[in-house]
Amino acid sequence: MNLKNRLLKIILGISFAVALAAGVSYYIFMPRGPIVEFNYNRDAKQMLQYFYDDWWWLFPGKDFSPEYILEHKAPGKEWYQQKYKGKLNIKVVRKDGHVAAFTTYYKKNHYEGVVQFIYVAPAFRRQGLAVKLTKYAVDQLFKMGLPKVTLTTRINNPARKIYEGLGFIETGRDGHGLMFYKINEKTFREGLKKKFEPKVIEGLEKEAEVPENLYYKPPGS
C-alpha cells in the first residue's frame, strides 16, 4: 500500500471518528422529544408576546412581570415568591422554528407542586399539546415526591375540560372569576392508563370571552 492510500485511509478514519463523536454528543446532550428546556435567547421574545397577547388567561391581574418570570425563573417578583427564584421549571414545545406551547411549574413545598402556566399558541391549538404539556408537568412534579399538584385557572377557561378530564378536582373559587384545582398521584396515574377524554362542561365555550380593556402592553411600548 503506497503512502497516498495510507494517508487517505487515515483521513477517512479520522473523519468517521469525528462524525461519530458529534452524533453521540448530539444524542446525549440535545433535548429529547418535542418538550424541551426553555432557552432565554431563543424563546423569550416569542413567549413574552404570548404573555401580553393572552394576558387575561394567564394572569389574574396587571401586577405581574413576565419579563421577571423568564429572566429569573421565578413564579413572580413578589417577596413571597423570591424563595423560588431560579427554581421555576420552564419547558417549551417548538414547531417550525416557533414556540408552539409552553408550561411552567415548581415545587412549592414538601407537600405541594404547582403548575403555573399551560399555554398553546393559537396557530398550534387542537393538536393535543395542552394535554401533553399538562401530563408532562404533573408527572414531573410527582416524580419530585410531592403528594399533590395544584393549579389555578379562570372559571370560563375551556382548558378546564382538560384538567377535569385528567382527574383534577375543584377545591374552591375566589369570587373574582378564578377557581382552584388539585390532583393526587394515585388519581393521576390511574388516569394515564385510560384513553384521555375531555370532561364535558356545559356552556363553557359560550362563556369563554375576554372582558374589554384588560390587555396590557410590554414596558416601553
Can you walk through the features of this model?
This protein is α+β, with helices and mostly antiparallel strands and 221 residues long. The chain has two domains: 1-30; 33-207, Gcn5-related N-acetyltransferase (GNAT) (Aminopeptidase, 3-Layer(aba) Sandwich). Helices cover 38% and strands 23% of the residues. The protein has eight helices and seven strands, in the order H-E-H-H-H-E-E-E-H-E-H-E-E-H-H. It has helices at 3-29, 40-53, 55-58, 66-72, 129-142, 160-165, 185-192, 204-207, and strands at residues 35-37, 89-95, 98-109, 112-120, 148-154, 169-173, 178-184. A seven-stranded mixed sheet has the order 1-2-3-4-5-7-6, with helices on both faces. Strand 6 (169-173) and strand 7 form a beta hairpin.
Report the average pLDDT across residues.
86
Return the CATH architecture of the largest domain.
Answer: 3-Layer(aba) Sandwich
Give the uncertain stretches in residue-range form. 18-33
Shape: globular
How many domains? The number is 2
- The helix/strand class is alpha+beta
CATH top level assignment of the largest domain: Alpha Beta
- Stated plainly, the CATH topology of the largest domain is called Aminopeptidase
Number of helices: 8
Strand order, largest beta sheet: 1-2-3-4-5-7-6
User: What share of the residues lie within helices?
Assistant: 25-40%
Could you name the CATH homologous superfamily of the largest domain?
Gcn5-related N-acetyltransferase (GNAT)
Radius of gyration: 22 Å
Tell me the β content: 15-25%
Tally of DSSP β-strands: 7
Question: How widely separated are the two ends?
Answer: 71 Å
Order of helices and strands: HEHHHEEEHEHEEHH
Tell me about the largest β-sheet: 7 strands, mixed
